[in-house]
TrEMBL record:
GO biological process: carbohydrate metabolic process
Signal peptide positions on this chain: 1-29
Name of the protein this chain belongs to: glucan endo-1,3-beta-D-glucosidase
Native species: Quercus rubra (Northern red oak)
Keyword list, A-Z: Glycosidase, Hydrolase, Signal
Amino acid sequence: MAKFPKSQPRLVPLLLLLLFLFSLRHSSAAYSIGVNYGTVANNLPPPSQVANFLKTQTTIDRVKIFDANPDILKAFANTNISLTVTVGNGDIPALSKLPAAQSWVANNILPFHPQTKINIIAVGNEILATADKSLIAHLLPAMKALKSALDLAKVTDIHVSSPHSLGILSSSEPPSSGRFRRGYDKLIFAPILDFHRQTKSPFLVNPYPFFGFTPRTLNYALFKPNGGFFDNVTGLNYTNMFDAQLDAVYSAMKKVGYGDVDIVVAETGWPSVGDPTQPDVNLANALSYNGNLVKHVNSGKGTPLMPNRTFPTYIFALFNENLKPTISEQNYGLFKPDLTSVYDVGILRNKQVVFRGGILLHQHQHGACPNQTLAMRRSKRT
């Protein structure tokens, strides 16, 4: 039997580390992680700098914005980054008429597409949560009118959808019990899902374990080791709240006959700083949630009820936004306005591996991720 040189024990951990990093890079290329690019701040870099940074320094391949800002749309031209643009809630009633929808498409889509790779028009944001009967009544007509306007303009590669909070569900625990709110199931969501099926467009949802955890379920929310949650109806065990929330949505969709419609996670995240009353909002927990989320999404495992299905996922948010109303809302960002990392969830290119305190961190060519000792600085959540 051949003898290994004495240096071999040191080589084994190094080789394992290299294989681990290679697998991370390989898996991140397989599926899709996006980011929400909010602009409620007065200190953000210009859109052209943001677009170039995302293209050259990150593996982000899709971005969602909360308007149809022409400067942002121009900046992402020829980057091959897919953009979701948003119709403001207040514009929905007018856009339920085809002429207005055609005008909106002519002003906000046609000047930029296809040089800018727009892939979804999000009609409003969490309309059901507004409880505004006029907006709710006009939502599907506006979606249909915008789809017709795109068809008339011979634009066939842009989907029309609308993001929904999990407030659309009247029940979500266990996941098999998931159902849409009574009165909205057949009247609102069945027709919306039928539109998605007919147009092959995705149903957008905003699952936030951050808003659903208790101290007892914190590890469950953060993808950390935990006792799990057993669904007696299906016999399936859940090890994280993200999967449970998605499966509750799927159960609701299936109950009205549309379990085949694709799902996109339009928003999810965890803030890194909060108020004194929010002890579970800190850098370590934000890194745990978003970092584990990226690995989970990239694994392609799907969920217990939807094995092997993939869900394009948009992390909230790209930047810390200093004009948001609360401390935690100001600190959802993966990056600071100077483009340095708040923390790295595995989306940076050209990484240099760094270990601190037994935690795998990273540096990239923009400099070390600031304040990453992860000394559990106390922070909080809304």
